[in-house]
UniProtKB/TrEMBL annotation, chain B:
<keyword id="KW-0812">Transmembrane</keyword>
<feature type="transmembrane region" description="Helical">
    <location>
        <begin position="246"/>
        <end position="268"/>
    </location>
</feature>
<dbReference type="InterPro" id="IPR035906">
    <property type="entry name" value="MetI-like_sf"/>
</dbReference>
<feature type="transmembrane region" description="Helical">
    <location>
        <begin position="190"/>
        <end position="215"/>
    </location>
</feature>
<keyword id="KW-1003">Cell membrane</keyword>
<feature type="domain" description="ABC transmembrane type-1">
    <location>
        <begin position="71"/>
        <end position="269"/>
    </location>
</feature>
<feature type="transmembrane region" description="Helical">
    <location>
        <begin position="147"/>
        <end position="169"/>
    </location>
</feature>
<dbReference type="Pfam" id="PF00528">
    <property type="entry name" value="BPD_transp_1"/>
</dbReference>
<protein>
    <submittedName>
        <fullName>Sugar ABC transporter permease</fullName>
    </submittedName>
</protein>
From TrEMBL, chain C:
<dbReference type="Pfam" id="PF13416">
    <property type="entry name" value="SBP_bac_8"/>
</dbReference>
<keyword id="KW-0813">Transport</keyword>
<dbReference type="GO" id="GO:0015768">
    <property type="term" value="P:maltose transport"/>
</dbReference>
<protein>
    <recommendedName>
        <fullName>ABC transporter substrate-binding protein</fullName>
    </recommendedName>
</protein>
<dbReference type="InterPro" id="IPR006061">
    <property type="entry name" value="SBP_1_CS"/>
</dbReference>
<dbReference type="GO" id="GO:0042956">
    <property type="term" value="P:maltodextrin transmembrane transport"/>
</dbReference>
<dbReference type="GO" id="GO:1901982">
    <property type="term" value="F:maltose binding"/>
</dbReference>
<keyword id="KW-0732">Signal</keyword>
<dbReference type="InterPro" id="IPR006059">
    <property type="entry name" value="SBP"/>
</dbReference>
Length: 295, 283, 430
């Protein structure tokens, strides 16, 4: 009798802790998502849903003949891959740098954090100037245009411009997460390692890194979802150009909906894309979780 | 001998850090100098210092943005959203970690998976659904109100915040909580008394990351808030962004003014992160 | 214990501030809810909201609205605002969720946007201003003989040229009668100090493609017929003689252009700096030119394709009234638009403050700015080439512009360009 009451109590408590969040989350995120899922099977016109007809998998079938979408899909994966590598390597380095013993670390921490504060159109504008004007000027000065040319004018270079700007913006973001993790490692552990005479690299690999593994998993995932959803930088820096060669997936979906007025097709694209990255991500999380446990 | 080597290495490190910092700051330098230039000067002299350091564009930008109202609105929306996100996310994550059963894992998975949905693909259904929550008799409406916007920010902010808290709480030892329970605290008390104070570093991180996003967000408020009196800072910069032409100097001046509060908050929060860690170490 | 207490207090404060904030927010939300309340309570004014795409005139519009509000006590107009390229998205979401709360007056373009928002547009044929629309300018807003929009302003584009540079280089604008003349003039102009390119096009897809390709299509004498044939697949773009010769002309001009590599802002700045002798732009550039403190004289030059001597004049932007607003709101909206477009007090704002070229008879046009005067002159001399680009397939402007970009970058020949355009066209017309 007592244990029954207690488990009831426990359940009630659990509900108090979880239900408010779930209520908001379901209504703000899940319901619209499911609505979108339903829309993707209809001929919805982008306005009121009433009066739309179910068309089965027609929209989904159309996706696979959409070569632009397929290109954007591949490009987004490539983009995400490089973003994950660069953002985390640089973000972690920055975090280590500003938690090390250098004197101006507090100031530098704010400096590295600043790029996050410039978003959207302004960001694109500034970087556009760097790539199209600054680079060209520097190129003229050094008399070589092998590195310093108008990057946005060349499909491959424009892609790398996207990666650079994305990294520039996001590295400071994951740095914050790494800092929190590094600082939660107690000094005693590190001092003990120092007394043992462990080298810096050894100390990092064997002591720091395993302890910040959870932060690593989190940062990987945040970079992954951030770069898969990248839109602002894409639209403001390259606008998908030159000649449509740098169109990432979110931009493609947005254009399908708002330029071509094919709303259900856009919804279907979003669903397909969501499922694919979900699979990728779950695999990634499972792998890094495993490693966490092994460590 | 070893000492001098370390010292040289530290100096080298410091130089590297500064070089990196300069590269990071270059675009910010461009932003600041151009907020002082006339529209033509921006294009004729993009990288140099401005001809004059007049704050005219700042004054004009702030006037056009109706800065004080916008600032107040942004502050209300951002502060309340972040506080509630923190409270809800911390509570939920802790419970999910301690439950640690199939249901908890499923809930976590759903939270995390939805981080992958691009906002652009749910925005029309979201607005359709939210505008159906409407009780004209008592003036309740999710659309065109601050509380409606805050509600949506909490919904979108929870995913990442739960994810961050969950990862952190897994590393928090259960022993202290058990001791508190034995002393007679119930879960509610245990959480606020024992657990939450230990979460301060991650709470600051969650706060900052959400701040970055909510403070600068344009798209969601542009869809929900239409009354001029409710506009947040990013919304009130619409004046500067025409269909084909942009008043860059005003836009940049407006941005500079609007990010200063974030920097101040960050400096403040940074202190707290360190303090929080210190407090943890003393125990 | 203290910590627990403070936590509870904290959450209580937060909750109450949420409620307090809710109360405040409600006051702000009254305008949009007034759709319901205004109809019920007779004593209250109907509130009308207006949203439009030209942020440049937002401040002036607010002044006009203020004057209108104080001139009568039936309705109250409020101006809403949104960044220029965000308007369609916002309108779409609002009409898609609660049309009765969407703005009472809004602007959309003709063509595909007209079709898209048509179910939400009230008929405006009975308005005073509707009867004063200049000949033919109401056509793009007509559907089944009914009028669903009031044109915003006449706009004209062509080559805006630097008169001082022209005379320095010894080029007479009236001598430019063909593309070959234009090229010859460009060669002379490029010998002048500081001139980087004789002609500059802007990179935005409307400027890079739509406006430019308006010329060959609009100068055919059977434009609609030809476009119909392209749509049905009867004719391919690369087989149309006019297009072939236009492609050849592009090849001649290309070396003298900026390859459309500058944004609109940069293009006009370059013109103001004397780096470009001519820019392919419209009278809307006037506000920018004013901001850039241009020190020389400038004017419009026809794009001399096939001996054309006119500039391209039309309008593609229309005021619409929300059909789902209450009847009081719709009446009020019409009253405001009639005031703006027919009452001398409102008209003053249109020409002097917004710097628009009126599309209605009965305006005093003596105080307009230089470029607008020029457009008016061309129009009154009958030298106006119509706007036909809204007949191009919907939503394809970016893809068209991408083809142009390939051409400018040398990745595609001019005949390849026509084939590429044909592909994009057929893809979008499906």
């Amino acid at each position: 009798m007592k244990s029954l009451k207690r488990s009831l109590n426990n359940k009630l408590m659990a509900a108090v802790f979880i239900v408010p969040s779930l209520f908001i989350f379901i209504n703000v995120v899940l319901v619209p998502f499911v609505m979108g899922l339903i829309y993707s099977f209809t001929d919805w016109n982008g306005f009121k849903f009433a009066g739309s007809h179910f068309v089965g998998f027609t929209n989904y079938a159309q996706i696979f003949s959409d070569t632009k979408f397929m290109t954007a899909f591949g490009l987004t994966f490539k983009y995400a891959f490089f973003m994950i590598v660069f953002v985390n390597v640089i973000g972690l380095s920055l975090a280590l740098l500003v938690t090390s013993k250098i004197k101006t670390k507090n100031f530098l921490r704010s400096v590295y954090f600043l790029p996050n504060l410039i978003g959207g159109l302004i960001l694109g504008f500034i970087w556009k100037f760097v790539f199209t004007k600054f680079f060209v000027q520097v190129g003229d000065m050094v008399g070589s245009d092998s590195i310093f040319f108008d990057w946005l004018d060349h499909p491959t270079a424009a892609f790398w411009a996207l990666v650079i700007v994305g990294t520039w913006q996001m590295a400071g973001y994951v740095m914050i997460i790494y800092i929190a993790a590094i600082q939660s490692i107690s000094d005693e552990v590190l001092e003990a390692a120092d007394i043992d005479g462990a080298g810096k690299w050894y100390r990092f690999r064997k002591i720091v890194f395993p302890l910040i593994m959870p932060a690593f998993t989190i940062s990987l995932f945040l970079t992954l979802s951030g770069s898969f959803k990248q839109y602002d930088t894409n639209i403001s820096l390259t606008g998908g150009g030159p000649y449509g060669s740098t169109e990432l997936i979110t931009m493609n979906i947005f254009n399908t909906a708002f330029n071509l007025n094919q709303y259900p097709l856009a919804q279907a694209k979003a669903i397909v894309f969501f499922l694919v990255i979900l699979i990728v991500t779950v695999t990634q999380v499972v792998i890094s979780k495993k490693r966490e446990v092994e460590q | 001998m070893k000492r001098t080597a370390t010292r040289y290495r530290n100096i080298a490190l410091e130089v590297c850090a500064w070089l990196l910092g300069i590269i990071m700051m270059l675009p910010i330098y461009i932003m600041i100098v151009n907020s002082f230039k006339g529209r033509k000067e921006i294009f004729t002299n993009t990288f140099g210092l401005p001809d004059s350091w007049s704050f005219a564009f700042y004054a004009k930008a702030m006037e056009k943005m109706n800065f004080l109202t916008a600032f107040k609105n942004s502050l209300i929306v951002t502060a309340i959203s972040i506080c509630l996100i923190i409270i809800f996310a911390a509570m939920t994550s802790w419970m999910l970690v301690r439950m640690n059963n199939k249901l908890a894992n499923l809930i976590l998975l759903v939270f995390v998976a939805t981080m992958l949905i691009p906002f652009q693909s749910v925005m029309i259904p979201l607005m359709q659904y939210m505008s159906s929550w409407d009780i004209p008799a008592i003036g309740f409406s999710m659309v065109n109100t601050h509380y409606g916007l805050i509600f949506m920010y909490i919904g979108f902010g929870l995913s990442m915040s739960v994810f961050l808290y969950h990862g952190f709480i897994k590393g928090v030892p259960v022993a202290l909580e058990e001791a508190a329970m034995i002393e007679g605290c119930n879960k509610w008390q245990t959480f606020w008394k024992i657990v939450f104070p230990m979460l301060i570093p991650i709470t600051m991180t969650v706060g900052i990351l959400n701040l970055l996003w909510i403070w600068n967000d344009y798209l969601l408020p542009s869809l929900t808030l239409s009354s001029p009196t409710l506009r947040t800072i990013p919304l009130s910069t619409f004046f500067f962004f025409g269909e084909f032409t942009i008043q860059w100097n005003l836009a940049m001046a407006g941005l500079v003014v609007s990010i200063i509060p974030v920097i101040i908050f960050y400096l403040f929060a940074q202190k707290y992160i360190i303090k929080g860690v210190m407090a943890g170490a003393v125990k | 214990m203290k910590k627990k207490l403070s936590a509870i207090v904290l959450s209580a404060v937060l909750l109450s501030s949420l409620v307090a904030c809710g109360g405040k927010a409600n006051e702000g939300s009254i305008p949009s809810n007034n759709a319901d309340t205004a109809t019920k309570s007779t004593g209250k004014k109907a509130v009308i909201t207006i949203i439009q795409n030209k942020v440049e005139i937002q401040e002036q519009l607010e002044a006009a609205v203020k004057e209108f509000n104080s001139s009568q006590d039936q309705v109250e107009v409020q101006t809403l605002g949104v960044a220029g390229d965000n308007l369609t998205t916002v309108l779409q979401t609002q009409f898609g969720s609660a049309p009765e709360k969407a703005p009472t007056i809004f602007t959309t373009a003709s063509g595909s946007e007209f079709e898209k928002f048509l179910p939400y547009m009230a008929e405006l044929g009975d308005m005073k201003s509707a009867s004063l629309i200049l000949d033919g300018q109401d056509k793009p807003a007509m559907k089944d003989g009914k009028l669903y929009g009031l044109p915003v302003a006449l706009e004209g584009f062509g080559l805006i040229y630097n008169k001082d540079l022209f005379s320095k280089a010894g080029v007479k604008p009236e001598d430019i009668k063909s593309i070959d003349d234009l090229v010859a003039a460009s060669v002379k102009l490029e010998q002048q100090d500081g001139v980087k390119h004789a002609i500059a096009f802007a990179e935005e897809s409307y400027f890079r493609f739509m406006h430019l390709f308006n010329w060959p299509f609009a100068l055919m004498n059977n434009t609609s017929e030809v476009i119909g044939k392209i749509n049905s697949g009867e004719v391919k773009i690369q087989d149309i003689p006019e297009m072939k010769s236009f492609a050849a002309d592009l090849d001649k001009i290309k070396p003298h252009t900026n390859l459309s590599k500058n944004t609109y802002d940069e293009q006009v700045a370059g013109f103001a700096e004397g780096q470009f002798a001519m820019i392919h732009q419209g009278n809307w550039a006037q506000t920018l030119l004013n901001d850039y403190d241009v020190s020389f004289n400038y004017g419009f030059l026809p794009f001399p394709l096939n001996g054309n001597d006119g500039i391209s004049i039309g309008n593609s932007n229309y005021f619409r009234v929300n059909k789902h607003a209450s009847s009081e709101q719709q009446q009020g909206a019409k009253a405001f638009l009639d005031w703006l477009l027919t009452n001398p007090a409102g008209q003053r704002y249109v020409t002097e403050e917004f710097k628009w070229i009126p599309v209605y008879s009965g305006f005093d046009t003596s105080k307009m700015d230089p470029l607008s005067q020029e457009v008016n002159r061309f129009a009154s001399e009958g030298k106006a080439v119509p706007w036909v680009f809204d007949q191009f397939p919907a939503g394809a402007h970016q893809d068209f512009a991408s083809e142009m970009e390939k051409y400018y970058a040398g990745k595609e020949t001019s005949s390849g360009l026509l084939e590429g355009l044909e592909k994009v066209w057929m893809n979008a017309a499906k």
